[in-house]
Each structure stands twice: as structure tokens, then as C-alpha cells.
Design brief:
Layout lengths: L9 H8 L2 H10 L9 E5 L3 H11 L4 E5 L2 H10 L4 E5 L7 H11 L4 E6 L4 H9 L5 E4 L4 H45 L1
Parallel strand pairs: 1-2, 1-3, 3-4, 4-5
Helix pairs in contact: 2-7, 4-5
Length: 187
């Protein structure tokens, strides 16, 4: 069905199953609608940076801004976002800590960490604890950040579609098991 030859390894199978086009085809077949909210949360303690990011992201996304991690946590509790773009060094809570905390509310959100610093321990924490999707170094170019948000959105979409398709498959499997039990009892 997926074009994977008999006897192919698990890697080839996973690669074939996880192709975005095939996920989209299955989603359409089963009537699964759009999985993205197009909401992006941008967090930076410098209002000027927020204004610049909001200005060029607003053409393609619904942008929410927060000047602190605390405000970002309030927003994320109220609004389902696809992507969070955050500065690393902010008063009170780092971007890495914020992204890790956001996962408690929205585990499927993609985090993009923006920073001028390349401290190895910070990057390790960002990857291992906050599960960042992408790291963008300051100074950044608008095209670079737009591409990162687009890639993060696609990643979130495919993850949500896969989760929904697996839920449908599980429900179908449960229905099949119920039917088989019913047939077995009739014998």
C-alpha cells in the first residue's frame, strides 16, 4: 500500500508512512480537516523586537505577543498555538524554561528559540528539556524566521494529523474486535 517492498526495513517503512503527502491523503480520505490554528506566540522582553516579528508574521499567522514568560503562560492557557517563538534571555524565566513549561499546557506546540548566545549548556537544555524545534541565532533575517515558523507549523500539522489518524485506527480496531467477539459468541 505504501510502496514499501516486502522485507523492507523498519526505517524504510517509517519513512514511507510518515511522508507528509501520504498523511494529507489519508486525512482527506477520512474527512479530517485542517489541524493548524495558525496562531503563533512571540515572546521577548524587548517590545521593539515583538513589534518587528509581529509585523512580518501577521501576514500569514494570527500573532500573539508577550513581553514576559509569565504573560506567555497566561496566553497559552487561553489560546491554542501551533508555534512559540521566544527569546532565550529574559528576566524571570529563560526561553528554554518557558518552552518546557508550555509543554504542560500544549505538548504539541513547536518551539523556536531565538538568541544571540551560543552557550553549549543552554543549547543542550533547549534540545533535551524544552524539545525545541529550531534554534535561530540573532541577528536573524525575516526570511529565516518566516521559514522556521513555516517548517514548525508543517511539523505540528503532520504530528496532529498522525495522532488523529492513529486515534481513528484505534477506534476502528476496537470496532473490529467488538464485531469479532460478537461473531465468536454466536458460534
Amino acid at each position: 500500500m505504501w510502496g514499501v517492498a516486502d522485507g523492507a526495513g523498519a526505517e524504510a517503512y517509517a519513512e514511507a508512512v510518515l511522508e507528509p503527502e501520504k498523511i494529507s491523503t489519508l486525512a482527506a480520505r477520512y474527512g479530517i480537516g485542517e489541524m493548524l490554528t495558525r496562531h503563533v506566540l512571540v515572546v521577548d522582553d524587548e517590545p521593539g523586537n515583538l513589534d518587528v516579528m509581529e509585523a512580518f508574521l501577521a501576514e500569514d499567522y494570527i500573532v500573539h505577543t508577550a513581553v514576559s514568560a509569565e504573560r506567555a503562560l497566561t496566553i497559552i492557557a487561553e489560546v491554542r498555538c501551533d508555534v512559540v517563538v521566544t527569546d532565550q534571555r529574559m528576566p524571570g524565566m529563560t526561553g528554554t524554561d518557558l518552552l518546557a513549561a508550555l509543554r504542560e499546557h500544549q505538548p504539541d506546540v513547536a518551539g523556536i528559540l531565538v538568541t544571540a548566545y551560543t552557550d553549549a549548556p543552554v543549547l543542550v537544555d533547549a534540545i533535551n528539556c524544552a524539545l525545541i524545534f529550531r534554534y535561530v541565532r540573532k541577528p536573524w533575517e525575516p526570511a529565516e524566521l518566516l521559514a522556521a515558523v513555516a517548517a514548525a507549523s508543517a511539523f505540528v500539522r503532520n504530528g496532529r494529523l498522525t495522532t488523529r489518524l492513529l486515534a481513528l485506527l484505534t477506534m476502528g480496531g476496537d470496532d473490529l474486535n467488538d464485531l469479532l467477539d460478537h461473531i465468536s459468541r454466536r458460534r
